[in-house]
Amino acid sequence: MNVIFFGPPAAGKGTQAKIIQERYGLQQLSTGDMLREEVASGSDLGRKAKLIMDRGELVSDEIVIEMIAKRIDSPECAKGVIFDGFPRTVAQAEALQEMLSKRGQAIDIVMELDVDQDRIIERMEKRAAEEERSDDNIEALKKRLQQYNDYSAQVLPHYRSRGNVPVIDGNQQVEGVTAQIEEVLQVKLPS
Ligand code: ADP
Predict the structure, then answer these.
(1) How many domains does the chain have?
(2) pLDDT in tens, 154-184
(3) Full DSSP string of 64-119
(4) Residues 104-156: pLDDT tens digits?
(5) In which element (H, E) is residue 52 found?
(6) CATH code, domain carrying 75
(7) Pocket test for ligand 1, best of 135, 139, 149 (most atoms within 8 A of CB)
(8) 10 Cβ below 6 A of ligand 1
(9) Could you list the residue range(s) of the whole structural domain that residue 127 is in?
């Protein structure tokens, strides 16, 4: 089963993806994490990506599509994938669909994690204080939120026109959010 967690920065996609990965064996693929690994490794790609990420802008479709393509056939993805932070553009969504259909697969569920803007800013500020991400400065945070508002206006209608996109209330505590996600997954999971 392949699932997309769609939602603003700091909505808790990564936290929830890790819980669902643990419980159901679906593999979290986070393009943000993959990019941060590239940055940490000091690769050419990492150096280029860092400049873009630190500004809160999107790295190119080509780069993220390539990163996903490299991972999708690995054994840990055999039971399915939770796409976290990908796709962020319609071009990425189309590339993903093509990749999956070549493998006789599809996206089974797209979920939107909805979080109030004030709360997003609160959480981003908290995370900035706790973790040392170079893109968690106030300018980059604002830019990422603005980017989200822009790209979600393209990507969400793309998926909504193809099926139901259940909305998860991401304002709740971690367990409350997980429970809502599980409820949506139960419909599709083999019992
Ligand atoms: P957040 O959701 O908190 O913004 P992520 O870890 O998902 O953080 O992403 C961090 C940065 O990595 C983004 O601001 C962007 O520069 C880059 N990035 C991650 N995923 C994508 C993607 N699918 N397309 C383009 N850029 C991406």
Answers:
(1) 1
(2) 999 999 999 999 999 999 999 999 999 999 9
(3) HHHHHHHHTTSGGGTT-EEEES---SHHHHHHHHHHHHHTT----EEEEEE--HHH
(4) 999 999 999 999 989 998 888 888 888 777 777 778 888 999 999 999 999 99
(5) helix 44-54
(6) 3.40.50.300
(7) 135
(8) yes
(9) 2-188
